[in-house]
């Protein structure tokens, strides 16, 4: 909206959900085109487009693949403090007619700074979801150290109400994103040190304490307990 011949006001993509809403409306529109397979919709985004691609994929499961090219996907504290930092010297008087970049000031006034209101700033960031996807991929490719880095990053940003969907059962279900990250952490722990199965099981138990019906975590725990039992029998 607000670009080219589009109606509306160009609010920007960082301090407003408007552009993400526009993209999701666009997805709904292209699904109805006869030349489109609605089960194979992907999204590509550069810079701010990458920022919006990530957000759109978190909101909609209908976007099956995404390419983020040089996307603005830093945490909000980094975006606010380090991106396009003004030159040294006196702060210039803001130009009332200039709207670019004013989203920072507007959001500070409404929600406070990240130091004053960290819960809000973490809640509008999709990076905990990105951390999960990266960690899952790295576990599958054997980069367990990298996976642990992403898992800890995700756990530092995850907030109440964030959920993740699983599809290994006939009926899909959702669990807390924190529980999902803890499940991955347990798997990475086991892959890193297979002699310490108890530590991995204890971490998965943390996930199950949050989500007792987390089917995939229960299956992982059963598999680890079975391996532990097999190892103990061999020692005997």
Features:
two-stranded parallel ribbon, mainly alpha, two-stranded antiparallel sheet, 4 strands, 236 residues, 53% helix, 10 helices
Describe this structure in words.
With 236 residues, the protein is mainly alpha-helical. It has ten helices and four strands; from the N terminus they run αβαβαααααββααα. The strands form two sheets. It has a two-stranded parallel sheet. The protein has a two-stranded antiparallel ribbon with strand order 3-4. The longest helix is centred in the last third of the chain and has 21 residues.
Number of strand segments: 4
Give the terminus-to-terminus CA distance.
70 Å
SS class: mainly alpha
Shape descriptor: globular
Question: How would a textbook summarize the main sheet?
Answer: 2 strands, parallel
Helix proportion of residues, in percent? 40-55%
* Annotation field: number of helices: 10
Whole-number average pLDDT? Answer: 89
Query: Approximately what portion of the residues adopt beta-strand conformation?
Result: 5-15%
**Spans where pLDDT lies below 50 across 5 or more residues:** none
Computed over alpha carbons, the radius of gyration is: 22 Å
Order of helices and strands: HEHEHHHHHEEHHH
| Physical arrangement of strands within the biggest beta sheet | 1-2
